[in-house]
């Protein structure tokens, strides 16, 4: 169904769907007014549910919408999927499988070349053809050891108190910054509200009063970066507070550096953490001592399902002028076939069906992992995830699919 919203509140069907989804993810109980506000954030999106009469609330849920996805050198419209949950009394009945299959089929009919989701159970979605495409890493910075190699600050930092004012500045910054990272997604109004205010079902729809927003401007006064931070642990007990980064986006290297300098220079702050950092954060290289930054773990982030291999491969750009034949195995049949990728025109690559012998044979899940440039096909070949038919073809594919930056999406969904 499509949510109907009136004066900031969603209709009864959307409220019932939202209640079921929240319960599946163990969120605190909310009243109907709160759920109507949450549901209003789903306006323009697609809600799917499995229902057991006469219960008006679904026993299984799925939500999706069209989101702009960055690929190397361009963007595509992807089917973004979230909210997949099943009531505990109706597990093991294939309900989530059916909802996901219906959503993917609808995305194919709509012409989406890819679908994306995040998951706490990644292997679950490989059976649907999803491949792990981006990762995030947790980092921890000890501000007492952080000494910047360039001691001279540049530009200026502005603290923004009002979320609407923050969105007016942060929105355009994120729109530019995300185009630098394959795998990054455009944000919905609901995602922006949660990010800037902390108002969400899991905290009873109350604003997060520990949250703050700072915008960095260059010497000309142009906003080029921002950080959303929150106090994770006060200074009272340990004598130094811990700040957690909710979101950090920068369009220039100066903006990135100065936002970190701002975080480190705050009084009473001893530690800064970021759970959604890229796996190639340049922060350690800004400091005299790399050991001030501790890497605490790496997690799966975006899983990508290729729905139209020619469309997706033709939408991105390539660093080399070569040709390779890929045979894609897709049990669902959406994009199975043998395709010749020719990048001799790097601004208009050609992908066309062929009967030539394949250089590489790979399942669609493996294509989802490598297509953004975040996973080396040679690694998948060594692990048996793809077959290198022509000698050296996995290396050739790795060079062709290399991205200008490591894929990263800093927006949980």
Short synopsis of the structure:
The protein is built from twelve helices and 20 strands. It is α+β, with helices and mostly antiparallel strands and 413 residues long. Strands 9-10-11-12-13-8-14 form a seven-stranded mixed sheet, with helices on both faces.
Features:
413 residues; alpha+beta; 6-stranded mixed beta sheet; 20 strands; 27% helix; 30% strand
Q: Can you give a write-up of this model?
A:
It is a single chain. The chain is of the alpha+beta class and 413 residues long. The chain is built from twelve helices and 20 strands. The chain has helices spanning 12-24, 32-40, 95-110, 123-126, 163-177, 189-197, 235-238, 253-264, 309-315, 364-370, 377-382, 393-401; strands at 5-6, 9-10, 46-50, 60-71, 74-86, 114-117, 131-132, 135-142, 156-160, 211-217, 223-233, 241-250, 269-277, 293-300, 303-306, 323-329, 337-342, 350-353, 360-363, 387-388.
The count of DSSP E runs of length 2 or more, i.e. the number of strands, is: 20
| Fraction in beta strands | 25-35%
Task: Give the count of helical stretches.
Answer: 12
Report helical residue fraction.
25-40%
Dominant shape: globular
Write the layout of secondary structure elements.
Layout: E1 5-6, E2 9-10, H1 12-24, H2 32-40, E3 46-50, E4 60-71, E5 74-86, H3 95-110, E6 114-117, H4 123-126, E7 131-132, E8 135-142, E9 156-160, H5 163-177, H6 189-197, E10 211-217, E11 223-233, H7 235-238, E12 241-250, H8 253-264, E13 269-277, E14 293-300, E15 303-306, H9 309-315, E16 323-329, E17 337-342, E18 350-353, E19 360-363, H10 364-370, H11 377-382, E20 387-388, H12 393-401
Parallel strand pairs: 5-6, 12-13, 16-19
Antiparallel strand pairs: 1-2, 3-4, 4-5, 6-15, 7-15, 8-13, 8-14, 9-10, 10-11, 11-12, 16-17, 17-18, 19-20
Helix pairs in contact: 1-2
